[in-house]
Amino acid sequence: MILSSRRMHVVAFGVAMALIRIRTIKSSFVFRRAGGVISRGGKSSNHRPIITPLLPRQVPQQMSSSSSSPPPPPPPFVAGGRGHTQQQSRGSTSPLGGGHGDDVSDYERLVRKLYMTNLFNPVKLGLENMDKLHDILGRPMDDPRVSVVHVAGSNGKGSVALKTANALRRYGGKIRVGLFVSPHISSFRERIQIDGIPISEEQVVIHLREIFDICESNDIPATFFEVTTALAFRIFDAENVNAVVLETGLGGRLDATNVIRRPALSIITSIGLEHTHILGNTIELIALEKGGIMKAGCPALLGNNLPFEVLRKCGEDKGVSRLYTCDDVLGPAVVGSSKSTSPSSLLGDYDVENSRIATAAIGVLQQSRRLRMIDESELTSEEIAMAVQIRPPCRFEELDVPVTIADVAAGEADEGSHQVTRVVSVILDVAHNPQAMEYLIAKLRANYPNTHKLRMVVGMSADKDLRYCTNILLDLVGRCPDQIHLVEASHPRAASISSILEANPQLADCHYCTNTRDDDVNLDGRDSSSVSKQVRSALQIAAANDEIVIVCGSVFIMADAREELGIVEPRDSAVIADVAGAGFRSSQENFLDGDTKKG
């Protein structure tokens, strides 16, 4: 049942917050395997190593500081009026927005409210809510002065969106480029960027309050992703952005981003088996859902790893102006070269395919009348090639991390006096589904043939094929579970360690970190610091044995891992993290099936 009454919201919110604030007494953490506490030379090795990160081989994109000066006071909101915002009372008394004390900022209060949205509004595939929101906002993404690039796909869509936006920024001052991606790693603000810079906390406060007021006054039961999408549209409009790159959230046809009517270009990067309970259980059905972003009279671009004939027919039925492949735009890639997009080369480096798709996208856009209305100049091939080299964080992100450990060779009798520093290579990759995991493993095999020197820190999402993905990892390390460290994030979508072990009993001898009380292991205990503990443990063992550490499996473990590795970047506070993902399980259980089996 959709709760629209303000009184019902208050009651439900009180119950939800009471549940969220229940905390178990924190207890000691123990590193355990089937054989007991992990140790070296008879001593526990769970002390924190001294970690001082070197300059990463790939520097993560920097976020703007939340303490930057706020934007000037905006004029009143006018629907469809670019550059206008709605002034809101700073003292909003929304039942979901307050009650957390004076030490909670407006940003934290509003983002908490956003995360709680799915507790009250059932998640349902469909465009009804977003169409209403977009209409009230004046349909800014359908403004002919705005060129929208819409990106869908099972894998690579976030990377292609980032690369395309980065290339568009090379046009200079004439084009302001908005980017909407998900999920984020450390801060909600990463999802919405303008000219490569995440939006400020002040922008979130001004416009998120506005979106909430619109939903409440018009009785629109918008979900987390719908509100976030509307927020992006509103901010892009207020900031006079004239080129927007949108990444879909789930699927395409019924995704909240698909309310746009005339994109400058629709891109489908790849198709794999994912979210089969929602999108369909075959590649063909999933392809039809992704293909739903193609529009009549608008061009579309297809990546390499997908069922071309299914999507060609889908595009033909929808009346696309032209359906491009990368080869159509760039010419055939030379097999074996760095630009090859043959299946064998793609398994070796999926980033090659993502860069090629983004390069082809710029080629199509440079022929587009809508883009020429903004800037008649064209980028050189060298400028485009440089721009598409960018990668999102945690997509085969390579770091060099110095770790100080005890010098065993010097003897452990006086351990504190004998220490050495070793540089450990660390690779971060979200690899969130079987296809992405296979790509990661293929790249690791190609780059690091000596796979017994790989140490894996693995956390996964509960809705993935846990047995299949963990078997891939076991094959990589020669069926040696001692080289795998299992972790679980605090997010509700994270798979528990017990569920991973149940899915694949061969992992019983791996490393894992759990909450314990009175020395009893509780595999269902959930604490984000288990990620930090296992990253720390893996670094110690890797430093002692000249190994490479791979952190992979889920975006939900990356913020803790990056913090433990010493990467300094803006991160949302625990006030927000406490409710991140709230309502996910209930919204999944009560998922209202849309018509997801048709193209």
From TrEMBL:
User: Which of UniProt's keywords are assigned here?
Assistant: ATP-binding, Ligase, Magnesium, Metal-binding, Nucleotide-binding
Q: Name one GO molecular function term.
A: metal ion binding
Could you read off the lineage of the organism from its UniProt record?
Answer: Eukaryota, Sar, Stramenopiles, Ochrophyta, Bacillariophyta
Positions of region (Disordered): 58-102
Which Gene3D superfamilies does the record cross-reference, listed alphabetically? Answer: Mur ligase, C-terminal domain, Mur-like, catalytic domain
Q: Where is the Mur ligase C-terminal domain?
A: 424-554
Q: Which family does it belong to?
A: Belongs to the folylpolyglutamate synthase family.
| Database matches in PANTHER family | DIHYDROFOLATE SYNTHETASE-RELATED (PTHR11136:SF0), FOLYLPOLYGLUTAMATE SYNTHASE-RELATED (PTHR11136)
Keyword Zinc appears in the UniProt entry: no
**One Pfam family matching this protein:** Mur_ligase_C
Swiss-Prot/TrEMBL GO biological process terms: folic acid-containing compound biosynthetic process
Q: Where is the composition biased (Polar residues)?
A: 84-95
Q: Tell me yes or no: is Transit peptide among this UniProt entry's keywords.
A: no
Q: What is this protein called?
A: Mur ligase C-terminal domain-containing protein
Which superkingdom does the taxonomy of this entry point to?
Eukaryota
Q: NCBIfam families in the record, alphabetically?
A: folC (TIGR01499)
InterPro entries associated with the record: Folylpolyglutamate_synth, Folylpolyglutamate_synth_CS, Mur-like_cat_sf, Mur_ligase_C, Mur_ligase_C_dom_sf
